[in-house]
Amino acid sequence: MVGIFADFGVSSDQLDDADRGFSFQEDGPLDMRMDRGTQKTSAAVLLAHASEDEIEAWLRDFGEERFSRRLAHAIVQSRRFGPLLRTSQLADLVERTIPRGRRGIHPATRTFQALRIAVNRELDEIEAFLQTGLRLLAPGGTMACISFHSLEDRPVKLAFRNEVRSGEFEDLLPRGVVASPEEVKRNPRARSARLRAVRKGEGKD
């Protein structure tokens, strides 16, 4: 292949569709599956059966949530009164359990990110993509990736760095490229995006 481009972000169409359950801003089923045709386990099912330790690990590792233990305990305790089936239920629970963070950032933001990653095994998919994709590139071929948070950017940065150190690839964007203030004004969801790219050296099979 001469070029591979990956955009790891969730599409705006999915985020804006309350029926998909990705957003806490509108009420909808607590689903979060990228492919409801093949995936059986929704976020609601995951939370209904996971242990407190498992939930705490997802919130800590996938959401980088400071209050992961407190929140995991609250989720498990809430199951005594019935399952969490709606996005509004989970968002309200988070808001009651942990303090608000930075101004304008809803306290459920990290929780919803963590559950979405857990449901879809997103980080595993990124690792598999990077491992396979870099090997498929033909000499002179380029791989470019856009990530939207540090958990996505970290494996890309590490994989690209390792390939560059091997002498097989050239780093085209050593520090990555982020959206300009003008672009963020037009599209606020671009504020956390970062583009990285590497090129395979000529004659490298």
Main CATH class of the largest domain? Mainly Alpha
Q: State the helix count.
A: 9
Summing up helix and strand content along with how strands pair, one would put the structural category as alpha+beta
User: What amount of the residues lies in strands?
Assistant: 5-15%
Number of strands: 5
The domain count comes to: 2
Provide the helix percentage. Answer: 40-55%
**Mean pLDDT metric:** 93
The CATH topology of the largest domain: DNA polymerase, domain 1
Order of helices and strands: EHHHHHHHEHEEHE
Detailed description of the structure:
46% of the residues lie in helices and 11% in strands. By secondary structure, it is of the alpha+beta class. Strands 1, 2, 3, 4 and 5 form a five-stranded mixed β-sheet that branches. The mean pLDDT is 93.
List keywords for this structure.
205 residues, alpha+beta, DNA polymerase, domain 1, Rossmann fold, 2 domains, 5-stranded mixed beta sheet, 9 helices, 5 strands, elongated
Question: How are the secondary structure elements laid out?
Answer:
Blueprint: E1 3-7, H1 12-16, H2 43-49, H3 52-63, H4 68-78, H5 87-97, H6 109-120, H7 122-136, E2 142-147, H8 150-165, E3 169-171, E4 177-178, H9 181-186, E5 194-200
Helix pairs in contact: 3-4, 3-6, 4-5, 7-8
Short description:
The chain is α+β, with helices and mostly antiparallel strands and 205 residues long. It has helices at residues 12-16, 43-49, 52-63, 68-78, 87-97, 109-120, 122-136, 150-165, 181-186; strands at residues 3-7, 142-147, 169-171, 177-178, 194-200.
